[in-house]
Amino acid sequence: SPGLYIVATPIGNLGDITLRAVDTLKGVAAVACEDTRITGKLLHHLGIKQRLIRYDDHAGEHDRERLLALMEAEPVALVSDAGTPLISDPGYRLVRTARERGIAVTSLPGANAAVVGVTLSGLPNDRFLFAGFLPNKAKAREDTLASLAAVPATLVFYETAPRLGASLAAIEAVLPGREVAVARELTKKFEECRTGAPSEIAAHYEAHPPKGEIVLLIAPPGDEAKGEVDVDALLLAALAEAKAS
Ligand code: SAM
Known about the structure:
Blueprint: E1 3-7, H1 19-27, E2 30-33, H2 36-45, E3 52-54, H3 61-73, E4 75-78, H4 92-100, E5 105-108, H5 113-121, E6 128-133, H6 138-147, E7 154-160, H7 164-174, E8 180-184, E9 192-196, H8 198-207, E10 213-218, H9 223-226, H10 231-244
Parallel strand pairs: 1-4, 1-5, 2-3, 2-4, 6-7
Antiparallel strand pairs: 7-10, 8-9, 8-10
Bound molecules: S-adenosylmethionine.
S-adenosylmethionine (SAM) binds at residues 11-12, 80, 82-84, 87-89, 112-114, 158-160, 183-188, 213-215.
Enzyme class: transferase
Protein name: Ribosomal RNA small subunit methyltransferase I
Main location: cytoplasm
């Protein structure tokens, strides 16, 4: 039926597409995508012939209106180059406007680099905060990290290989003592995940310059850093209790 179908696609391994995604991509009237060449390749791999409509970060009001008009009459899929649309990818305005106009919107779950990074890193996952890309400029990057310093959750960022060194240095300066994880080339042949102190990880990647795509994670502040829990006092109290009983 007519409406907008948000469809997650793989982040590397082409096997990571769901059966529902394949059925939907086959069944819609058109597929809106960031880059027709990249999505064309994926659909070719899946044996699907489709009408592709470009919809990227530069899409203006006019492109959006055309797509909205189409999805009022027919089913339209939205995909991005990789992973889950809208997550550091285009689509927010389209979804917002579609909902405002009462167009049916549904979202088909699938690959997402941030979630793969969280599950793989071994860092606490009961709470995590996805914070997209850190700013490019040094001062803005440090300010962003400082603004997140007290958040009691694992912090998750998207990162690029050329900027990894600068980000690790900033973490070491602004969030001293916090463990980090670098999750690289997820779901691909050279997938790796390294955890440790930012200085250790930085030293490794200075010796072996990283390639490919990266999720950068920062462990939550420890109890020492929060200054709230006095572990010694808790232990002494527990000992006293054990002795008394
Ligand atoms: N929407 C996508 C998703 O759901 O993961 C993210 C798109 S964002 C423009 C691209 C960034 O996602 C990359 O710079 C990298 O930080 C991260 N990323 C995407 N694929 C990845 C992979 N296979 N391994 C590690 N990080 C990846």
